[in-house]
Design a protein that fits this description.
The protein has 277 residues and is of the alpha/beta class. It has helices at 14-21, 41-54, 74-82, 99-111, 125-129, 131-135, 148-154, 167-180, 195-207, 221-227, 232-248, 262-276, and strands at residues 5-10, 27-31, 61-65, 90-93, 117-122, 143-146, 183-186, 212-215, 252-255, 258-261. One of its GO terms (biological process) is oxaloacetate metabolic process.
Length: 277
């Protein structure tokens, strides 16, 4: 099963990192960017290096969000992670605007023969228009992520509204990820008290092809994980559909009012495999 929940934790908060490990999240994004004050960047980097090196195979999947490519901190962040005795699954690169920017980080990792992957974070309208190029810019890219908060502010929208009105960029990012064969990670949901809203948005993310969702609070993890898991109703329907197709021994079957052929059956088999994980 691919990681569903990805919890942001400040890179300079060791207690929060330890707590996050016990939260049930599938992945943790240790953050060196927005959640760390400029005056604390160096100490957060040092703490993050120690965190990476002490990470256990039993812990959630580890990602590190570095500072933006337009900052003075980013190359020091990347170099510190390259030099770690252990490495994170991937570096989350914020505010990626073009394929060229992905290549800059790729070249740095290639020159060190590093095993670290990349997750470009799409946060600007120009990046959305170039998202297929960004997705295919590097073989190191394992996932595309959408940052709706900065995206909204960059086009003059309120950062605090729901994500229903940024459906189009979410869909385009999901499509681009699918086109190049990487995963897609949906944006955060800011209202940590609105469980119903989070559940609805997570369900929508799954429906439009996202594989997981970022989170800002441990309390959001159960709803995100549940939202990306197939329901018992879906699994029951999938079992009946597969059984009906196999019993018919034909290329197409008529199942509960719908014509179903082999590609649909294979998709339902994958759903059953997902439910068994």
């Amino acid at each position: 099963m691919s990681d569903r929940s990805h919890l942001f934790v400040p890179g300079d908060d060791e207690d929060a990192i330890e707590s996050a490990k016990q939260s049930g999240t599938d992945a943790i994004i240790v953050d060196l960017e927005d959640t760390v004050l400029k005056s604390a960047k160096a100490s957060a980097r040092h703490t993050t290096v120690r965190t990476v090196e002490e990470w256990s195979a039993d812990d959630p999947t580890l990602y590190v969000r570095v500072n933006g490519l337009d900052t003075e901190f980013v190359m020091a962040d990347v170099e510190a992670l390259i030099d770690c005795a252990a490495v994170p699954e991937a570096i989350v690169v914020p505010d990626v605007r073009s394929a060229t920017e992905v290549q800059i980080v790729t070249d740095k990792l290639d020159s060190a023969s590093s095993d670290i992957g990349l997750v470009p974070l799409i946060e600007r309208p120009e990046a959305v228009f170039r998202v297929h190029e960004i997705a295919g810019a590097s073989e190191r890219t394992i996932m595309l992520a959408f940052g709706s908060v900065d995206f909204r502010m960059n086009i003059g929208m309120s950062a605090l509204d729901s994500n229903a009105d940024v459906y189009l960029p979410r869909y385009l990012i999901s499509m681009a990820a699918s086109a190049v064969g990487c995963r897609a990670l949906d944006t955060v949901f800011l209202d940590r008290e609105n469980d119903a809203g989070l559940r609805a948005e997570t369900k929508e993310a799954r429906q439009i092809g996202f594989d997981g969702k970022m989170a800002i609070a441990e309390s959001q993890i159960p709803n995100v994980n549940e939202g990306f898991a197939p329901t018992e109703r879906e699994l029951d329907r999938a079992r009946r559909l597969v059984d009906a197709f196999e019993a018919a021994d034909a290329g197409v079957v008529y199942f509960e009012g719908t014509f179903v052929d082999r590609p649909v059956v294979e998709e339902q088999r994958r759903l059953l495999d997902h439910g068994a994980e």
